[in-house]
Amino acid sequence: MKEEIIETAKDMFLNLGFKSVTMDDLASEMGISKKTIYSHFQNKTKLVEATTEHLFCTICNRIDFIRDEKREPIEELYAIKAFVMKNLKDEKTSPQYQLQKYYPKIHDTLKMKQFEVMQDCVIENLNRGIETGVFRDNIDVQFISRLYFVGVAGIKDQTMFPLEHFPMTKLMENYLEYHIRGIATEKGLKILNNLIKE
Q: What is the three-state SS of 127-154?
């Protein structure tokens, strides 16, 4: 039952937002009593914590699976972006923004975990891109990997990028292209342009 609650809560939080969904809404959606939910989760904060942790692990496992396929580095970045966007429901409600506003401790813990995982992933991708000649060999890998993380986190700031003008799908698309164009060789740009055409 605990897993079912987490799964349903995850879908509701991503579709409606962390703030909007109440324990009553969740109980009603599942056709169970609030008491059942509280027997597994002390309060809504504990539920949000468990749900974000579950989502984080799911995304990490899938990203590892994509990385294990050893695709061409630029294709790999696009495959990861497509998977993340699908899993986060295109972030219509900007869950990350709501998490930061209403559950700052959970947000900060999650952000540090994301940074660690993303650093590993991006550094490996950049090094492989240099080796295969799709990224320039004179880039500072540590600097670019951090800049990429800050950019991905930064475009989720709704004060800078209001959703009505900047849908998350478009933002992620534009940012990834911007990132790759800044570091790609001629060979890399050909791959990028083909991926954009597709």
A: HHHHHCCCECCCCCHHHHHHHHHHHHHH
pTM more than 0.70: yes
* 16-36: pLDDT as tens digits: 889 889 999 999 999 999 999
Q: Would you tell me the crossing angle of helices 44-68 and 23-30 to the nearest 10 degrees? A: 60
Task: Kindly report the CATH number assigned to the domain that includes residue 77.
Answer: 1.10.357.10
Secondary structure (3-state) at 32: coil
DSSP secondary structure string for all residues of 148-175:
HHHHHHHTT-TTTS-TTTS-HHHHHHHH
What's the CA gap between 73 and 192, in Å, rounded? 10
Tokens 């966007």 sit on residue: 85
Q: How many folded domains does the chain comprise? A: 1
